[in-house]
Amino acid sequence: MSRRTEDCTLLWFRRDLRLGDHPALAAAAERAGRCLAVFVLDDRLLAPAGAARRIFLIRSLRALREQLAGRLLILAGDPVTVLPSLAAEVGAGSVHISADCGPYGRQRDDDVRAALASAEVELVATGSPYAVAPGRVRKQDGEPFRVFTPFYRAWQEHGWRAPARTDESTVDWIDPATVAESAPLPAEPDPKESTAGLTLPPGSTASSELALPEPGESAARSVWQDFRDQALADYPVDRDRPDLPGSSRLSGYLHWGALHPRTLLADLAGDQPGAEAFRRELAWREFHADVLWHRPETARHNYDRRFDTVEYDSGPAADTAFAAWCSGLTGYPVVDAGLRQLLAEGWMHNRIRMVVASFLVKDLHLPWWRGARHFMRHLVDGDLASNQLNWQWVAGCGTDAAPYFRIFNPITQSQKFDPSGDYIRRYVPELRALTGRAVHQPWTLPDGPPAGYPLPIVEHAEERKEALRRYDAIKR
Ligand SMILES: Cc1cc2nc3c(=O)[nH]c(=O)nc-3n(C[C@H](O)[C@H](O)[C@H](O)COP(=O)(O)OP(=O)(O)OC[C@H]3O[C@@H](n4cnc5c(N)ncnc54)[C@H](O)[C@@H]3O)c2cc1C
After folding, report:
1. Per residue in 135-182, pLDDT tens?
2. What are the phi and psi torsion angles at 399 (to 5°)?
3. What is the pLDDT of residue 402?
C-alpha cells in the first residue's frame, strides 16, 4: 500500500555527502518543507573501486546517516528504476541532486530525468561538486580553455557564489522507515581483495589493514581547519615534500563531497600566506573537470591524438614490469615508497604520483591507462577527471601537458623532495636501517641493496634515451 506524504521532495545524495553548503538541499527546502534523503548503491559506479574507496564510501554513508539521526534511505539497484518508484511511493513532486559532470553520471542523470518525467516528477540539479560548474568558464570566443594558466585567470574572474546556508535543520527529514525498507550498508570489503594477484613486499601492511581518513563532514571540516591554521602558510613550499604533512589531504573528502570547494574558497578570502597556492591547486581540479566535460572521450583516449602512435611495450616482460611497479618492487626506493603508500593508505602524495607515473610511462614504456586503472582501483580520491588527465599530463599527451622530453629522474626527485629519506623509510621497511643518502640508491652500496630489496628493474639513464627516441618518432 502506498503511504503518500504531501508536499515532499527527495534529495538524492551522490558525491555530495554533507549537509553544510549544500545548494541542492537549499533548493529542495524551497520546494517543500519535508524531504526524504536517499542514496542508491549503484554497481556501475562501485565496480572499478577497490577496497579503500568502497570502505571510505561505506563509512562516509554511515557518518551521513548518523548526522541525519538515521533518516537516510539506502537503496540498491539502477537509479533509473529505483528513483521513479520511490518518488511515486512517497508522492514526491521533485527529486533534487547536485549535478554530476562525468560522462557516466551525465548519461545516468539524463535517463533518470526522462524516467521521472513520465511520472511528472522533476529532476532538479542545483550546484555541482565544483566552485564553478564545468563548461561555464570559456575563452572570449566561446571555446573551452586548453591551457591551465589562462583558465585559472578566467575562473577567478568568473567567481563563485557564497556558500549555501544549509544544515540538518534546513528541512523536516522524512523517516525512511515509514516509506520503504532500507538496504543494509554493504559489509566493508577485505583489503586483501584489492591486492589479490600482487606480490606484496615483506612487511607490507597493505594486505591486512588500510589506514584511511576518518569519514564524514565533521572530520573533513576539522582536517581543513587544522591544515588552514597550521600548514597553509608553508603550503607553497611544503606541498612538494612527501616526508612532511605539507598538503591538506582533503582530496578524498572533496571527491565524495564531505566538503564543497566553495566552503574552502570562502575561508581563503583575504591574503593569508599560502592561500593563492592552495586556490591554484583547487583550480586544477576544476580545470580537469572542465576538460573532461568538453571532451568526455579523454577518460579513455589521448587528449592529443598525435600520441596514439607512440610505441608502448606489451607482452610477458611488460606484464612482469607492470606487476613489479604495482607491488612497489621496482628497485627505485622513492617509486616503491609511493606505490606502497597507495596500497597502505588509498592515497599518494602529489609529487610522488608524478614520479611514479613518469616511471611507468617513460622508464617502463607502458601506456598511461594501465597505471591510471591501478590508481583508480586503489585511490580513495580516485576521480575520473583528475586521475586520467593528470596521467595524461605526465605522459605528455594531455592538455597543457608537461613537454614529452621532461622525464622525471627518480633519483634526483627523491634527493630533492625527500632529502632525509624519511618518506622512503616509512614505506619501505627493507631500507629502514640505511642511514644517509644511500637510501635513495641502495644499489650503490658495496654489498648492494639490503636483503629482500630488489635491484633496479631498469636503468633510468638508458630508458630515458629510449623514451626520447620513441617520442621523437611521433614528432617526425
Ligand atoms: C598521476 C596523477 C593522478 C592523480 N589522480 C588524482 C585523483 O584520482 N583524484 C584526485 O583528487 N587527485 C588526483 N591527482 C592530483 C593530486 O595528486 C591530488 O589531488 C593530491 O595529491 C591530493 O592530496 P591533497 O588533498 O593533500 O592535495 P593538496 O595539495 O592539499 O590540494 C588541495 C586539493 O586541490 C586538488 N588538487 C591538488 N592538485 C591537483 C591536481 N594536480 N589535479 C587535480 N586536483 C588537484 C585536490 O582536490 C586536493 O585535495 C593526481 C595527480 C597525478 C600526478
Report:
1. 999 999 999 999 999 999 999 999 999 999 999 999 999 999 998 888
2. -75, 145
3. 65
For ligand 1, residues with CB inside 6 Å are 239, 247-251, 254-255, 281-282, 284-285, 288, 350, 353-354, 357, 375, 379, 381-383, 386-387, 390-391, 394
Nearest residue (by CA) to ligand 1, atom 17, is 350
Flag whether pLDDT at 306 surpasses 60.
Answer: yes
Please, are residues 34 and 175 in contact by the beta-carbon 8 Å criterion? no
Contacts 24+ apart (CB under 8 A), 350-355: 350/239, 350/240, 350/247, 351/240, 351/241, 351/242, 351/413, 351/417, 352/242, 352/423, 353/390, 354/390, 354/394, 354/408, 355/408, 355/410, 355/413, 355/414
- Residue 153's identity, in one-letter code, is R
Chain centroid to Cα 442, Å, comes to 33
pTM over 0.85: yes
Residue nearest to atom 36 of ligand 1 (CA): 281
Question: Atom of ligand 1 at shortest distance to CA of 249?
Answer: 26
Q: What is the DSSP letter of 443?
A: G
What architecture is domain 305-475? Answer: Orthogonal Bundle (1.10)
CA of 350 to the centre of ligand 1 (A): 6
Please name the residue whose Cα sits nearest to atom 4 of ligand 1: 387
Please, what CATH class does the domain formed by 130-162+216-294 belong to?
mainly alpha
Pocket test for ligand 1, best of 281, 360, 387, 391 (most atoms within 8 A of CB): 281
Q: Which atom of ligand 1 is closest in space to residue 382's alpha carbon?
A: 8
Question: Cα–Cα distances in Å, from 393 out to 2, 306, 390, 401, 438?
Answer: 53, 14, 5, 4, 31
CA angle, residues 169, 174, 175, in degrees to nearest 5:
115
Strand partners, 125: 97
How many Å lie between the centroid of ligand 1 and the Cα of residue 248? Answer: 10
pLDDT score at 204: 66
Q: What's the mean pLDDT when you consider all of the chain?
A: 94
pLDDT at residue 457 tops 70: yes
Topology adopted by domain 1-128: Rossmann fold (3.40.50)
Hey, where are the domains in the chain? 1-128, 130-162+216-294, 305-475
Chain centroid, CA 130 distance in Å = 13
Give me the phi and psi of 3, to 5 degrees please: -105, 80
Q: pLDDT (tens digit, 9 = 90+) per residue, 244-274?
A: 999 999 999 999 999 999 999 999 977 789 9
Question: Contact 10/88 with Cβ under 8 angstroms?
Answer: no
454 pLDDT exceeds 70?
A: yes
Same fold, 1-128 and 305-475: no
Run of H or E including 115: helix 103-117
